[in-house]
Amino acid sequence: MGILAGAWMGGRRGALLMQTSGFATLPNALASLVVPCQIPLIMLVSERGTLGEFNLGQSLVCRTMRPVLDALAMEHHTMTRLDELEFTVDRSIKQAVATQAPVALILSPLLTGGKVFA
Asked: Where are the domains positioned within the chain?
């Protein structure tokens, strides 16, 4: 996240890709850097912790991710259908840049097929 914040300040753009568990490490950086500095960070979060998840840690982060995003007043959208993907990603990027605010795009297992549990 720090690298992308620096890239933005240097006139470049990028996106942050992570799994739900990676989000658990980010609230402090979001609240102390990205949100107050008005950095239009684009986060793509591959969602785990739902739909048959076996790992309690993943489930806990999944249940708290959206409330944390709401508490930070961060725009977020859960992507569940391929036919909505292009429109939502395009408009979210435009909104993030225009409003100088981060956005999280959560990629649901309904969209990605999720993790296969053996």
From this structure: 24-110
**Dist. CA 31–CA 90, nearest whole Å:** 25
Query: What is the rounded CA–CA span in Å between residue 58 and residue 11?
Result: 35
**What is the per-residue pLDDT across 72-115, written as a single tens digit (0 to 9) for each?**
999 999 999 999 999 999 999 999 999 999 999 999 999 988 77
- Smallest Cα–Cα separation from 76: which of 52, 49, 47? 47
CA of residue 58 relative to chain centroid, distance:
15
Distance, in Å, from the CA atom of 7 to the CA atom of 5, rounded to the nearest integer, reads 5
Within 8 A by CB and 6+ apart from 70, the residues are: 76
